[in-house]
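Quick start: read one record
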Amino acid sequence: MTDVTVVHRAVLPATAPYSFEMSLRALAGFAPCAADHQILEGRVRKAFRVQGGGADKAVVVEIAPADAGVEMTVYGAEPPDAAQLAILESDVTRWLSLDDDMSGFLAAAGSDPAMAPLLSAAHGLHQVRFASLAEGAVYFALTQRSTQWFAAARKRRLAAEHGPALEVDGVRHVAFPSLAAVAALTDEELLRYAGNRQRLRRVREVVEGVLALDEEWLRTGAYGDVRKALLAVPGIGAFTAHGLLLRVLGRPDDAPLDMAQFEAAATAVYGEPAPTAAELRERYGRWVGWWAYTARTARSWLPEPAPA
């Protein structure tokens, strides 16, 4: 049996205001990735794929609160090299959106009286994302003509059978495989997770199409150009493109506000009549995605009304 030890420790800075407690609450309610991490007392453990160096292998990252950021402890069978550690620290930073500058959104929301209770309940919240582009792309492809529960279960089974894993303290942690590894699966292998051949075709189209794009450009290129490139991928429609842009790449410039779940969130925040999608976009501008995330994520965190 391979010995697993602590191979790296670091403190990752977070852009204020940031609350690790809010990240834990958001993770606990992030249904697409339920059971993909282990929440302990005031900490969270999750497997990440070590990028580079040949064959896929996993490390387990434990995150705990630290002054002005989070403390990252890495468990592994062997220490990653300096380049791999730099990528790993970047992956964790993106997963928890530690370096997101929320000031523009908070300024817009601070002048919106209806948002005051949510801002108070979710002070220091940064968006929790999918931990990798591969995981997000596969999940959103699996949700097409399916339910969130089935998509999450199929995604989790694919990871369990094809992702690198590591056991820490008796718990097996699995990292999601790379886009290239998923693309290399045969149709019959992929069919086990897609459920039917129509969804299999969509998953393959999305995986191969996203794999052909430059990930760093997807994260940093002009929003309109990136959105156009994603929509040009067969199998990616408006909902999947928005999902990838906001929940995977962390780009808050827009959200599918005309969908029922966001209309319901607007009604819950503002009452009837709720602002239209156009009005929300005008008020929040390039941070409207963070309005959508906060409105949906933090709504259940509001204190219960006092009994009459």
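The chain is about 45% helix and 15% strand.
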